[in-house]
Amino acid sequence: MTEPVAFDQHEIRCPAFPPAAAQALLAEHYGLTAAELKPLASFQDQNFRVTDAAGRRFVLKIANTHETWETLDLQNQAMRHLAAKDPAFPTPRVVPSLAGGDLATAEHAGQRHFIRLLTYLEGQPLAEAAHCPPGLLDDLGDVVGRLTAHLADFDHPAGARVIQWDLRQAQAVAAAFLKYVGDERRRRLIQQLLAQFTAEAEPLLPGLRQSLIHGDIVDYNLLIQPDAQQARRVSGLIDFGDTVRSYTVGELAVLLATVMAHSPAAPLAAAARVVGRFHAAFPLTEAELAALFPLVGLRVCATTTSAAQQAALEPDNAYVQEFAAAEWPTLERVAGLSPAVAHAMFRAACGLEPHPRSPAVQAWLRANAGQLSPLLNADLASRGVTVMDLGAGSDDLRDGVWERPGAVRAHIARTLKERGAGLGLGRHGEARLSYTRYDSPAEPETIHLGVEIFVPAETAVFAPLAGEVARLGWNELIVRHAPAPGCEFYTRYAGLAPAEVLTLGGRVQRGEMVGRVAAADVGAPLPPHLHFQLACELPGDLPALAAGSERAVWLSLCPDPNLILNIPD
């Protein structure tokens, strides 16, 4: 983080030129007569859409008094650079004044303002779209990836300026403006995201690339239009007012905060889709992928606190009040997501192993299989092991058997009895219809992430290897293992009554009894069993099931527990 700046002193108000004054500026500096002049909403500047008698459209931009010639020239030169790199890139073009310059000046209420005229881009702001369909997500990733690639070799002396929307300044911004957030719960969420950023991204910052970026790719600055097939596509990227030298991956982080705001049902899936397309246009480094989700959280902290400050400053500005209200749902959405899962999904979208530690964990377990103790008494396995087929293709569960209360439980008990097996196994990675739901529009979680071991209640369970108790609760035990550098992982025992001697943070020795299989509740869908799971990370509450579309991600996060059980076939 750079030296903190007193951002709370930066109280910027929008200019307030009346329409007649704007008409006069157009005539004086551009020789234009506006047949129509429409005010456009803005956070800190004043904008008008101008339509002349020939139907041509422009945007007259009147800068606030804090804007300098250098920073406005930075914006103009960024747009000129993009036009030279890619004439088809959907950004405005600068219209020279009658004097031949890109900037002119105007006086109002004793204050001097710079003015500019830009071409107008047709389209509907993304802010007005109810959601982002897959094709639009792809287009967002493509366009912003191309933008980042085009700006990679752009430079300007004013790019080194200090602005509150630069993610390098976001911690200072949030600290300065947090006092304007009155809701205690929201303050806690902001503090949570700031702490995540400090722990997970701050060590990576020195290794992140920096370049000049647009810096404000939000839904009001993204325009969309239907194409020939009526699919919505990006038709424009406007407002270069926050162009600054910053973390290159910050361009994507700002976009993802917007994408998640428009994807309430599956924010991470939508974000990952955008990341994959961005990466195809502008390849990300592993450090950038690791820092990306914490940067999204940091961006949300900056926007929510800034919106709260601006709303307090301008209580009568409807645009500012609407902007402030719209930020809170995104804060809650992002704060409720797991950084570890986000990182894995972003890596998977870029064609990388979803969890970076998964190969090392699996390799260590294979190499040290002979050093692991049995999970159960050997006499159970000696009586035979039956692998149950509880998946979507099971012949035993066809014709809706899985829907009938108690049918799956009865099937398992009957099968084990008929085969005289000492234990039954439910498979890892299996897709199961029995976990689908008809009362939710969300994708069901159907992929089984552990192995079920069907044994009688009260069966003793032993630790296969030493570790430390990471979570201890009713019916659940999670143990952390770190047997070698770069090889940290967890084992989860669910359906277990933990041994009373265990304590949170306490050591577990290899071969130590850690508990007994709990009895199944009356009416439970399965008979007594131990759910045994291997995980490379603890993403909040470790789920036992995952959505089918995220199968590869979760099977990397939660590899096959048979690496520990070592049961043949």
Give structural notes.
This protein has 569 residues and is of the alpha+beta class. 34% of the residues lie in helices and 21% in strands. Strands 12-13-15-23-19-18-17-21 form an eight-stranded mixed beta sheet. Strands 1, 2, 3, 4, 5 and 6 form a six-stranded antiparallel beta sheet that branches. Strand 1 and strand 2 form a beta hairpin. Helix 5 packs across helix 9 and helix 7 packs across helix 10.
Keywords:
alpha+beta; eight-stranded mixed beta sheet; six-stranded antiparallel beta sheet; 15 helices; 34% helix
What's the SSE blueprint?
Blueprint: H1 19-30, E1 34-40, E2 46-52, E3 57-62, H2 69-85, E4 94-95, E5 104-108, E6 111-119, E7 124-125, H3 134-151, H4 170-177, H5 184-200, E8 210-213, E9 222-226, E10 232-237, E11 244-247, H6 250-261, H7 267-281, H8 286-313, H9 318-335, H10 339-349, H11 358-367, H12 378-382, E12 385-388, H13 407-419, E13 423-426, E14 445-448, E15 451-454, E16 460-462, E17 467-473, E18 476-484, E19 487-494, E20 496-498, E21 507-508, E22 513-517, E23 529-535, E24 545-547, H14 551-557, H15 562-565
Parallel strand pairs: 12-13
Antiparallel strand pairs: 1-2, 2-3, 3-6, 4-6, 5-6, 7-9, 8-11, 9-10, 13-15, 14-24, 15-23, 16-22, 17-18, 17-21, 18-19, 19-23, 20-22
